[in-house]
Amino acid sequence: MNTVGKHDTLDRMIKTQQDIRRYTKQLNILKTKIRATKNDNDVSVTFALHWLKEKRNAVKSSMKIVPISELSDWRYRSKEGIVRHNKGLDHFFSVQGVIVKNSAETEVSSWNQPILVQQHAGFLIMLCQEREGTVQFLLQGRFEAGNIHAIQFGPTIQATTSNLRLHHGGRKPLLSDYIADTKSRLIYAAEHNEEGSRFWRKRNVNQLRLLSKDCALPHYDNFLWLTLPVIKKLMLYDNVVNPFVKTILCPL
To answer: Are 49 and 144 within one domain?
Structure first.
């Protein structure tokens, strides 16, 4: 590596360590607030489970697996050898192929497989706030076509770059302005690799943000404020809390 390359790498490492120290301090402050108010004994999740059940019962969508040839917006491109959206590779994701050789760390040394390729990062943001004398987190009743029971608790904001750019032709993800909100306090931010056996170097940006006490968010029926003890207990139930909530809140 040349001298410039060494200095660039060192600068990035120093900056990262500075970020980590700042994030650790912010997380410890938030942990102290949570410990001062939480009570893990006899935590009831009845209300949250009932809320989720009502949302699931209200779902009118139907989902089924069909051949790619039946999809109006997606096609197999024989010249490229991939499946992608009609509008191009920068929309959503594509299905391509990967060939692995000489792997000493896995069960077999060489293989090939389809893999999902998404050019842009996803954003996973959890908003929290001191409410009613305790720190609460704003979870979303998140519908996904492949979800067991259709709706699970997800982070406040769960969006891809394509969602934010309205490539789907629909509306902007709710509360997505808070991805880069300067009025909330960033507790921490970190990139996480999506499952590497299914996605090609896909990045998700995790953020935990603390809103000021006087910040009044718009009310949406598919969002619910919950305390950390309640969320942790909900995690013990099957298919109730999605994996992204767990990765964001893990440092707490």
So the answer is: yes
C-alpha distances out from residue 44 to 49, 100, 152, 225, Å? 10, 48, 18, 14
Answer yes or no: are the C-beta atoms of 135 and 128 closer than 8 Å. yes
Number of domains in the chain: 2
- pLDDT per residue as tens digits for the range 17-45: 889 999 999 999 999 999 887 666 678 99
φ/ψ of residue 142, rounded to 5: -95, 120
Give 27: exposed, middle or buried? Use CB within 10 Å, 0-12, 13-18, 19+.
middle
Q: Which pTM value belongs to this model?
A: 0.87
Helix (H, G, I), strand (E, B) or coil at 109: coil
The domain in which residue 152 lies consists of 3-62+120-249
Tens of pLDDT, residue by residue over 102-143, are: 999 899 999 999 999 988 888 999 999 999 889 999 999 999
CATH number at residue 236: 3.90.79.40
